[in-house]
């Protein structure tokens, strides 16, 4: 499903409105993959097909703004992630680009307390096992790669929740 599939999935329009309202209210928002695309759309970005699909374990490179970001910055210059998307987005007005990959320039952005991640960081062994039957035949999720994404993702999620709850990101 994609952001433009509101005819088949009418609830997407309501999600876009909800995200716009949450950001306007200053609430913390984390959008992952489709969530990042919906967030970008809600904030005035455009969503559409990428030049090519990006599927499998890879990495994103943090931009200078990403390196300074409270949530992503401690991850280092390159972050292991799982890609699984065929759409991309433009960075919404007023947002900062935080990460890019070779295939998709716009991988992460921040607007206030809202963070949009085109990539997946929530991967763990159980999720990888459930995904494997649905992946393209040429995409493998090796245990070492899954462990790298899980470790990086766990740290990123921990910093997101600490930072947005008012705690120190370094606790």
Descriptors:
alpha+beta, 171 residues, Rossmann fold, 6-stranded mixed beta sheet, 33% helix
How would you describe what is shown here?
There is one protein chain. This protein is α+β, with helices and mostly antiparallel strands and about 170 residues long. It has one domain: Rossmann fold (3-Layer(aba) Sandwich). About 35% of the residues lie in helices and about 25% in strands. It has 5 helices and 6 strands. A 6-stranded mixed beta sheet has the order 1-6-5-4-2-3. Helix 1 crosses helix 2. The longest helix is centred in the last third of the chain and has 22 residues. It is globular and about 40 Å long.
Helices, strands, pairings?
Elements: H1 11-24, E1 29-32, H2 34-42, E2 47-62, H3 64-68, E3 78-89, E4 96-100, E5 108-111, E6 114-117, H4 125-131, H5 143-164
Parallel strand pairs: 1-6
Antiparallel strand pairs: 2-3, 2-4, 4-5, 5-6
Give the averaged pLDDT, no decimals. Answer: 93
Instruction: Kindly report the spatial arrangement of strands forming the biggest sheet.
Output: 1-6-5-4-2-3
Structural class determined from secondary elements: alpha+beta
Number of helices: 5
Task: Assign a percent range to the helix content.
Answer: 25-40%
What is the alpha-carbon Rg in Å? Answer: 15 Å
Biggest sheet overview:
6 strands, mixed
- Give the end-to-end Cα distance, rounded to a whole number of Å: 37 Å
Which residues form runs of ≥5 with pLDDT under 50?
none
- State the domain count: 1
């Amino acid at each position: 499903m994609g952001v433009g599939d509101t005819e088949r999935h009418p609830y997407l329009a309501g999600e876009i409105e909800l995200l716009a309202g949450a950001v306007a209210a200053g609430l913390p928002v984390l959008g992952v993959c489709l969530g990042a695309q919906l967030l970008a759309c809600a904030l005035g970005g455009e969503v559409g097909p990428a030049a090519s699909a990006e599927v499998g374990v890879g990495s994103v490179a943090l931009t200078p703004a990403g390196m300074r970001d409270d949530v992503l910055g401690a991850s280092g210059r390159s972050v292991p992630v799982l890609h699984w998307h065929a759409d991309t987005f433009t960075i919404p007005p007023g947002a900062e680009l935080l990460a890019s990959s070779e295939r998709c320039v716009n991988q992460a952005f921040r607007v206030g307390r809202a963070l949009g991640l085109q990539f997946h960081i929530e991967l763990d062994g159980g999720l990888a096992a459930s995904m494997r039957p649905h992946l393209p035949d040429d995409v493998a999720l090796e245990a070492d790669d899954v462990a790298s994404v899980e470790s990086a993702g766990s740290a990123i999620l921990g910093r997101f929740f600490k930072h947005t709850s008012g705690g120190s990101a370094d606790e």
